[in-house]
Amino acid sequence: MPRETLGEFEHQVLLAILRLGGEAYSVSLVLELEERSGREISQAAVFIALRRLEDKGLLTSRLDDHAVEATGRVRRYFKLTPEALRRMKEMRKTLVRLWKGVEPLLDET
Amino acid sequence: MRAEQRSRPETRLPLSLLSRGLLWLLLEAEDRRTVLGDLWELYEHRCIRDGERAARAWLRRQMASFPLRLMADRLWRMSLQPGRPREAETQAGRSEEPMQNLFRDLRHSLRSLTRTPGLTATILLTVGLGIGATTVISGVIHAVLLQPLPYTDSTELVRIYTDSPPHRWNFSVADYLALKEQQTSFSLVAAYQNQVMTFNRGEVAERVDGKLVTWSYFPLLGLTPLQGRLFVESDDVPGAEPTVVVSHSFWSRFLGGDPASVGQTIRLDGTSYTLIGVLPPTAGPLEQSKDFYAPARWAPPERKGPFFIKALGRLKPGIDRAAATAELQAIDRRLFPVWKASYQDEKATWGIVDLKEYLVGDLGSTLVIVLGAVGFLLLITCANAANLLLARAAQRSREMAVRSALGASRGRLLQHLLSESLLLALGAAAVGAAITSAGLGALHTVADYLPRAREIGWDGSVVWLLVGITGGSLLIFGLIPSLQGARGSIEAALRSGSRGATDSVGSRRLQRALVVLQFAVATPLLIGAGLLIGSLARLQRVDVGFDTHNLLTAGVVLPSATYSDEGRVRAFWTGALSRIQALPGVRGAALMDSRPPNETSNINNFDLADKPTLPGESQPAVPWVSVSPDAFDVLGLRLLSGRKLNETDRDDAPPVVVVDRAWAKRFFPGEDAVGRRFHDGGCTDCPWTTVVGVVEDVRFSGLDQPLEGTVYSPLSQSLGWITRMNGTVYFAVRASGDPLSLVPSIRQAVHELDPGLAVTAVATADELVAGALDTPRTLTLLVASFAAVALMLSLVGVYGVMSYFVQRHTKDIGIRLALGGQPAQVLGLVVKQGMRLVSLGLILGVAAALVLTRLMASLLFEVGATDPSTFLGVSAGLLGTSLIACFVPARRASGVDPARILREE
User: What is the largest CA-CA distance in chain B?
Assistant: First the structure.
C-alpha cells in the first residue's frame, strides 16, 4: 500500500477526532475545530476531509442507528484506525524532532 | 412513521431550491441525508448560540461553498484516484461512474492532445486519409458490385448475346425477331441500340446521346415515368407517329422541367417527335448519360447482319439460366439455316449473362486492386499512428505509474488511454468523412466512365462503412498502444526516471513489429505501383502508327430521316470535305468512320478465298475502317505494297480494300497479301472483295491490344449504310499550325451546307491518344500516390524507432566510444539494427507481393505480374531510402561526445 500524504486540514481533523475520544461525527468535529482554531469551519471541508481520510484507510465509519431513533436524523460516526494512530505518532515524532531547537530561531525572526 | 421522522429535520432546513438541487446532484442519497442532518444540527446550534439571523447567514455561506467544494473534490478524486471508487459508491453500484469517467477521460485527453499538435495532426491526417480513401472505394464496391441493380427484381434480368468466344457479339434485327417470336423462357425480351441525334432548338443544334428501344424496354426493366407515359406496343409499329421519352436531365436542361412540355413536340435530327414521357432522375445504369429514348423501328432484315443491337431478357420465375440458355441455343440452331447465305459461323451460338455482370463485370478487378491499395494504406497509417502513440505512451509511463500507484486499476488506465485513441479516431473519422465527401463528389464527375456512379452517394451504407472502418482502425492504432501503455511495472517506471515502465522490452518489440508490418505492407503496394507505372510507361511508348502532331478530328452525324437519299449524303460529304480542304492552314483533310487509337465503329468478319474457314469454325473478325482516299496521306501512312484507295473505288466499282501490315502478316505470313480475295460480313453470294494494298499499322482497337490487322474500305461504298445507322463520320484534318484554331471554320463549312447539323466530338489526335491512357493513368496515379504515402510513413516509422533507440542508448554509446569504440562501428551498429527491421518487412512484403500482384495481371500491359526488374527495383529503392532513414539517427549516435555523457553521469 503506498503511503499517501496528509493535508494540513486532514491532520487537524485526525487530531480533533483523537481529542473527541477516537470516534466522532461531523457536527462535533466542526464545533471542536472551530473552538480550537478560532475560525469558522466549513461543513463541506470537514465532510470532504472525512471522506478522503476514509479512502486513505485512516478512518472507518458507521451509521448510528440510535441517533435515528433519538433525533430523527442519520449520523455517520468516524473512528480512527490503528494505521491512523500509527501515522499520527510517527508524524508527531517527526514534527517534534523537526521543531527541536528551532523555536528560539522562530522568535528571533 | 419512521420515515417521516427521518426526513423531518432535513426538510426543515431553510435551503433554496437551487441548493437542494445541487446537493441532490452532487451527493449520494445516504451522504445527502447525513450531510443535511449535520447541517440541521449545526444550524440549530447556531440559532441558539448566535440567533436565527446569524444562523441563516452562516447557512448561506455554507451553501455557497458546499457545491463548489464537492465538485472540486470530485474532480480531484477523479484525476488522482481513478479506478478506486469509494467503498460506499461501489456498494451502491453507481451506474453513472463509468460514463463520468469516460467524459472526464475525454476532457483530459483533448487537453493532452492539443498539447502535442504535431503528433495529433499527423495521426488525424494520415489515418483520416486512409479511412476516407477506404470508405470511398468500399462504398463504390458496395454500390457498384454488391448492390442489386436498381431495376425491379433485377436478378432476373440478363443480356442475351451472340456467343463466339472470345467475343460476345451484339444481336442483329434478324436475331431479335426470332428471339421474340420463339422464346418461352423469358417473361419479356427487349432490344436497344445506342443512338446519337441532333437536338434542334431554334438556331442551336445540340448533339444528344440516347437509345432506340423496343417498346418492351421500359416494362422489362420495371421503370415508370415521372411525367406522362412510356412506350406501348403501338409505338413500335412502323409508320406510327414518332414519339420520344426523355431523361430527367434533358427535361430540366432543355425544357425547363415544365410538365406542360409533355405532349408537345421536340425536333430530333430534323424530325418532330411527340414528347410522351419523362424518366425519373435516378433511372438505372443503362440509362446513365442517355438523354432520349425513341422507338426502334428497324426495317425487316434482308440478311443475318449487321449486328448492332443489344438484347435483354427477364427470366420467367422458376426458369434457371441453364434451361434458358438451352432454349436460346435451340432457337439459334433453327435460325442458322434460314440465313446461311449471309452468315456461316455455325460455331457461334447464343448465350446469356446477368445484366449486372455485363454492366460492371470489367470493373471488378480494378476496384479490388484499388481497394487493396487503400486498405494497405489504411493499415500503414494505423501502424504509424500506433507507433507514434506507443512512443508517446513510453514518454508518459511515469504518469501512468503514478496513477497506478495511486490505485488506478489497469482497466481504468486502459480506459484513459483508449479515450485518447477514441478522440483521435473521431477526429480521423471527421477527416475521413471530408475525404469521402470529396471522393464521392469526384466520382460523379467521372460518371460517364464508371457504370452506376450516379448510384453512389452519402447513404446509410457509406456511413456504416465509415463507422466500421473507423472502428477497425481504432482497434489497430488505439488498442495496441493502450494495452501496452496500461501495462508495465510501477516500480520500474518510478525508478528509471525519464525512461518509463512502458519503455519495456515488450513495448520496444511492439514498435519494431509495427515497423516490420509497415514495410511488409508498403512493399506490395510499392511493387504494385511499380508494375502499373511500368505498364503505363510501355503503353505510352506504344507506337500508334501515325503522326499525331497537328491532327484534328471532328464528327458529324447525318440524320437518316432527312438524308434518306444517298445522292444527298454523298453531296454533303464531298462538299464539306472540299470546303475544309480549301481552308487556309489545312494541309490535308479526309473522312473516316473510326478514330485511332481505340474508337472502332465496326468489326467485320470475312472468309478468305485462299484459306476458307472450316465448317464449324468462326470466321476471323478485325476492325473495319471506312476511309476516304486521302486518309492514308492525312494520317501519314506509308504504302508497303500495292496501291492506296483512290477516287475510282466507288460503290459501282468492284469492292476493294487496303489492309495493314499486321493483317498481311497474320493471314499471309511471308507472302504478298495484295490480290487476295475474301467475302466479308458473312455474305456468300456477294462479289469478291480484293486486297489492293498494304500500309503501315495503326492502332484502332486500343493501345493495349495486340495488332491483329485492320481493313480499310472505301467510305463511298458504305456511306449509305453508315447514314442509315445514324453513324458518325469524322473529318481528319492535318493542320499546318494549331489544329484547334481550325474548329470555327470547320463548323462554318458544315453549317454552310446544312445549318441544322452539329459538329461534335472535336479532339486532336494527341488528345485521343491521351484519352486512351486516361483509365490506366488514373489507376496508376491513384495507386502510386497511396504507395508514396505508404513509403513515407514507413520511412518515418523506421526513422522514429531508430532515433528513439539512439536516444535511449546515448549513455551506452558514450561509454562504448569512451572505451575506444570507433564512431564508424557505432554508425554500423545502429544502421544494422534499423535495416534488420526493414529487411524483414521487405522479405515478408515481397512474398506477399508475389501472390497479390497476380490479381492485377489483367491490368498490366507487357509487364509480368512478377516482373523481376520491378521487384528488384522496388526492393533496392526501399532499402536505399530506408538506409538514409536509419543513417540520420546513426550519424547522431556516432557523433555522441563521450566526455559529455560521462560528465553527466
Answer: 133
Interatomic CA distance for residues B318 and B329, integer angstroms? 19
SS3 content of chain B, % helix, strand, coil (to 5): 55, 15, 30
Is A31 in Cβ contact with B65 (below 8 Å)? no
Chain A residues closer than 8 Å to B73 by CB: 48, 51-52
Optimal mutation site among A28, A40, A47, interface B, most CBs of chain B within 10 A: A47
When CB atoms are compared, the residue of B31, B69, B86 closest to A45 is B69
Type and span of the H or E element at B778: helix B774-808
Is residue A13 within 8 Å of residue A49, measured between CB atoms? Answer: yes
**pLDDT confidence band for B499 (50 / 70 / 90):** very low
Q: How far from B129 is each of B125, B786, B814, CA to CA, in Å?
A: 6, 10, 41
Contact (CB, 8 A) for B743 and B552: yes
Task: Please list every residue in chain B whose beta carbon sits closer than 8 Å to the beta carbon of residue A10.
Answer: none
Cell of B820: 575506444
Query: Which among B2, B42, B69 is the nearest to A48, CB-wise?
Result: B69
Question: What is each CA distance from A40 to A30, A36, A90, in whole angstroms?
Answer: 9, 10, 29
For residue A104, give the amino acid letter.
P
Chain-centroid distance of CA B656 in Å reads: 46
Of B5, B81, B84, the CB nearest to A72: B5
Which DSSP letter does residue B143 get? I
pLDDT score for B216: 95
Question: B494 to chain A nearest CA, in Å?
Answer: 13
Round to whole Å and give the CA distance between B94 and B84: 13
| B405: chain A residues, CB-CB within 8 Å | 2
Q: What's the pLDDT at B838?
A: 94
Q: Fill in the amino acid letter for A87.
A: R
* φ and ψ of B42, to 5 deg: -65, -40
Q: Is residue B190 exposed (0-12), middle (13-18) or buried (19+ Cβ within 10 Å)?
A: buried
- Interchain contact, A44 vs B61, CB within 8 Å: no
Confidence of residue B730 (pLDDT cuts 50, 70, 90): very high
Spatial contact of B145 and B366, defined as CB atoms under 8 Å apart: no
Confidence of residue B13 (pLDDT cuts 50, 70, 90): confident
Which among A51, A72, A76 is the nearest to B8, CB-wise?
Answer: A72
Whole-number Å distance between alpha carbons of B608 and B360:
36
- Compute the nearest-CA separation of A102 from chain B (Å): 34
| Residue B108 bridge partners (DSSP) | none
Q: How confident is the model at residue B92 (pLDDT cuts 50, 70, 90)?
A: very low
Q: A106: which 3 cell numbers?
A: 522562530
Residue of B nearest to A53 (CA): B86
* Distance of alpha carbon B364 from the chain centroid: 10
Instruction: Please tell me the pTM assigned to this model.
Output: 0.70
- Number of other CB atoms surrounding residue B490 within 10 Å: 18
Place of cell 489507376: B779
**B42–A43: do the CB atoms touch at under 8 Å?**
yes
Q: Which residues contact B779 (CB under 8 A, 6 or more apart)?
A: B366, B369, B370, B532, B859
pLDDT at B879: 94
B826 — phi, psi (to 5°)? -60, -45
- β-pairing, B227-228 vs B621-627, is unpaired
B444 with B349: CB under 8 angstroms? no
